[in-house]
């Protein structure tokens, strides 16, 4: 079998889908994208096709190593997202050829169902109570919210109190019947992370995510020593080589690689195993579409330390399309009270409606995240 063609479709809300075709009619789907840089990743995918067209899609490991190493420069969000989407599609093809879901090819199920969580509130955390109440109706009990709005490197007590008050209100309303992560989203500096973590302690969030920016990962250890709140990060780390420094320095209780940013299934299975050796939980980041989620789930069901899966149903970014809009087998993503069962169909287990994708690609937005600024006019972390 040989790879014959790579076709990319940028589609609403801000995703990109990749179809890889072969000379025997088997196709595989991937979701290579960096939110806000879809066109850049698209160019990277098509540059990688030099290594792929004419090759045997079964040789995933060799194709992965070639895409990663042969171009001399490596790593980073663009290249690793391009590799991720190709890798997902190659696993999809392999599973379809062998008639097995990817988790079977990785050694079989380690659990019968996987716990997921939903976002509440938007870029600026608001209406958290209403958002949680609505999802509670659907049986969800685990959520994630942004922790702050713009926050200065050193900021005032009022800003801290506002952030804490939102969390306090959630706990006051729902008690410990629910769990939630608080995403600092890289908006919080190391000095302010110490302050915020201390003030959030009484409310016992399930985790605090990206307590500082990934480029400040040397602070994870000190922050973890100052709090009992589990610290999580990973969406802006792109390979084993990024994560190894975090494992060596310590501080994280949960790692959250994104299956569409960190080299795909081949790489994230290795990251999960490295994390397990350090007694660190695995909770893939996934604010994206159905192929990204299916890829996450294929790894969740073989990783002993997988604890929680992000999924984008109802997320504030999904304007113009929802998680399953491009999926034929919607029933296979059955989310019941926040739990999801394995996707048992061959490959990734997701059947893409290509006609819908082609139609939607005609209105592909050039999604960008907003540029935030502080009161003094300087750029703020979004
Ligand atoms: O889902 C999360 O945890 C996020 O922090 C969302 C962020 O990753 C956006 O997708 C960036 O555009
Ligand atoms: Mg996040």
From TrEMBL:
What else is noted?
Reaction proceeds via an anti dehydration.
Instruction: Summarize where Mg(2+) binds, as residue positions.
Output: 183, 209, 235
> Which biological pathway?
Carbohydrate acid metabolism; D-galactonate degradation; D-glyceraldehyde 3-phosphate and pyruvate from D-galactonate: step 1/3
Give the note describing cofactor binding and stoichiometry: Binds 1 Mg(2+) ion per subunit.
Q: Does the keyword Lyase apply?
A: yes
Mandelate racemase/muconate lactonizing enzyme C-terminal domain sequence ranges = 125-230
Which keywords, in A-to-Z order, does the entry hold? Lyase, Magnesium, Metal-binding
Alphabetical list of PANTHER family matching this protein: D-GALACTONATE DEHYDRATASE, D-GALACTONATE DEHYDRATASE-RELATED
Q: Which cofactor does it need?
A: Mg(2+)
Q: What is its EC number?
A: 4.2.1.6
- In this protein, the active site sits at 185 (proton donor/acceptor), 285 (proton donor/acceptor)
Q: Name one Pfam family in it.
A: MR_MLE_N
Q: What the protein does? A: Catalyzes the dehydration of D-galactonate to 2-keto-3-deoxy-D-galactonate.
CDD domains, per database record: D-galactonate_dehydratase
Class in the EC hierarchy, top level: lyase
The gene coding this protein: dgoD
Which residues are marked as site: Transition state stabilizer? Answer: 310
Q: Which residues are tagged with the site Increases basicity of active site His?
A: 258
The family assignment reads: Belongs to the mandelate racemase/muconate lactonizing enzyme family. GalD subfamily.
Catalysis: reaction(s): D-galactonate = 2-dehydro-3-deoxy-D-galactonate + H2O
What's the protein name?
D-galactonate dehydratase
A GO molecular function assigned to this protein is: galactonate dehydratase activity
């Amino acid at each position: 079998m040989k790879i014959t063609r790579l076709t990319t479709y940028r589609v609403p809300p801000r995703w990109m889908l990749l179809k890889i075709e072969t000379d025997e009619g088997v196709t595989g789907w991937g979701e290579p994208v960096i939110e806000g840089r879809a066109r850049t990743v698209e160019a990277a995918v098509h540059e990688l096709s030099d290594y792929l067209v004419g090759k045997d899609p079964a040789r995933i490991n060799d194709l992965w190593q070639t895409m990663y190493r042969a171009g001399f420069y490596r790593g980073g969000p663009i290249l690793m997202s391009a590799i991720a989407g190709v890798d997902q599609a190659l696993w999809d093809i392999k599973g379809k050829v062998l008639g097995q879901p990817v988790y079977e090819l990785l050694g079989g199920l380690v659990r019968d169902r996987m716990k997921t969580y939903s976002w509440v509130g938007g870029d600026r955390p608001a209406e958290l109570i209403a958002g949680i109440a609505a999802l509670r109706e659907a049986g969800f009990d685990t959520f994630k919210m942004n922790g702050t709005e713009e926050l200065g490197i050193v900021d005032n007590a009022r800003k801290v109190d506002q952030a804490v008050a939102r969390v306090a209100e959630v706990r006051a309303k729902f008690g410990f019947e629910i769990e939630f992560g608080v995403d600092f989203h890289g908006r919080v500096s190391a000095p302010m992370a110490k302050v915020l973590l201390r003030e959030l302690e009484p409310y016992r969030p399930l985790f605090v995510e990206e307590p500082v920016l990934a480029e400040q990962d040397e602070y994870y250890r000190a922050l973890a020593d100052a709090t009992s709140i589990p610290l999580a990060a990973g969406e802006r780390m792109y390979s084993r080589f990024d994560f190894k420094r975090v494992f060596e320095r310590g501080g994280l209780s949960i790692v959250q690689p994104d299956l569409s940013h960190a080299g795909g299934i081949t790489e994230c299975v290795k990251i999960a195993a490295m994390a397990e050796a350090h007694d660190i939980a695995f909770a893939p980041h996934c604010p994206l579409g159905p192929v990204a989620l299916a890829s996450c789930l294929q790894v969740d069901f073989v990783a002993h330390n997988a604890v929680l899966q992000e999924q984008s149903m109802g997320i504030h970014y999904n304007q113009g399309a929802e998680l399953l809009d491009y999926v034929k087998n919607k029933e296979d993503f059955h989310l019941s009270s926040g739990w999801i069962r394995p996707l048992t169909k061959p490959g990734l287990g997701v059947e893409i409606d290509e006609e819908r994708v082609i139609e939607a690609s005609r209105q592909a937005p050039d999604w960008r995240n907003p540029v935030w600024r502080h009161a003094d006019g300087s750029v703020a972390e979004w």
